[in-house]
Amino acid sequence: MDAFTEHRGPAEYFHGRTEIIKHFVHALEHYRNRGKGTTFLIKGPPGAGKTALLTKLAEHADDIGYAVKDTVSPSDLYVPEDMEATLGVEYTSRKELGAHVDAKIAGVSGKKELTQSSAVVHIVQKAAHGNGLLLVLDEAQHLAELVTPEAVKVATMNTLDKIHNGKVGLPVFLLAGGLGTTELAFESLGVSRFEDTHRVRLGALGHTSTCAVIHDHLCHSCGMKNPPTEWIESLAEQSQGWPHHMMSCIESVKSTLAQAGGDPTKVHLKQILVKGEARMSAYYQARAHGISRKQRVLLASLFTDLHPGESVDKEDVIEVLETEYPSEVAQDVFTRALRQGVLDEREDGDFAVPIPSMHTWLVRSYAKERQPQKLAKKFV
After folding, report:
1. Which helix (H) or strand (E) holds 135?
2. Contact 135, 61 (CB under 8 A)
3. Going by C-beta distance under 8 Å and a sequence separation of 6 or more, which residues neighbour residue 71?
4. pTM metric for this prediction
5. CA 349, 351, 352, 354 torsion: positive or negative?
6. For the segment 36-67, what is each residue's pLDDT rounded down to a tens digit?
7. CA distance 340 to 289
8. Are 135 and 175 spatial neighbours (Cβ–Cβ below 8 Å)?
9. 245-280 residue pLDDT tens
10. Who's near 116: CB < 8 A, 6+ residues apart?
């Protein structure tokens, strides 16, 4: 069954995100005029379309003259040979650069590690030019894994500092995308301040854009010459603007029409919606992998009396989990739920189930097994 397919990569038919694109292009042009660069962060839960947006933003960067490298990995930030291979430039030895390295950063001494980082920055400088260089790092939440050993942390911190604060000497941008924990990963490596328009929390597409994407797929991917408005609206309602769910709906259309052998009917649409809901449920089960049934029941109890989109405090989540588990286990469950997109942090520091239909699934599937806790809640 293809319910677990992430549909990662470029969107075949892209609509929406116009404000994000506008701010991104403006930032590229603004910093290029100053001969500098910085970091642009896209974060959000699984299935929100981060990878597709990164691809679209990279295309816009290419259109205005930036050189684009869209395969950057965390190791490129501290291993010169890796960055050399990614950018396709000749590597300059650490020994040659060593005399020019300042061996102190953030109060941590380590000339060898900083020489590595200086080599990475030197390689970036060689690949960049006056029109700018864009480095694209997807799944950037994995930066959190670079805090140990200390040598890796120091080298990575120095590289990120040079890029984020425009110290490379050329317009070099890091475009990073990842889950809701990505900003914390950057903070663990010394990058704690993003300009408001350079830090994007990605959510669902708007209704108009959702309908446009579905229309294009029905026409071009599913062979429907004139998709009925009822089909478009029904699929838009079920997907709720989440790109992953849209693709699940489209896969349901393809499989149903392939079996139908005739003109689409309302009966086919009903079958498609049933298949789509099953795929969405399977996706949520996959997202909650590693969280036991009892733990799901405890999490669901927090949201029983809440509407989709409403949130609770972290302390409330931990308190409920601690009714059945030691504090360290409760914290681990909370971290896993956040890392896998079962929970998502909001701007005010509260936490909610990120997808409305996922909220409904969690409550419907598990909350009835436990009496709801009387905890403070608020609407976000």
Report:
1. strand 133-137
2. no
3. 86, 136
4. 0.86
5. positive
6. 999 999 999 888 999 999 999 999 999 999 99
7. 8
8. yes
9. 999 999 999 999 988 776 789 999 999 999 999 999
10. 78, 79, 80, 94, 155
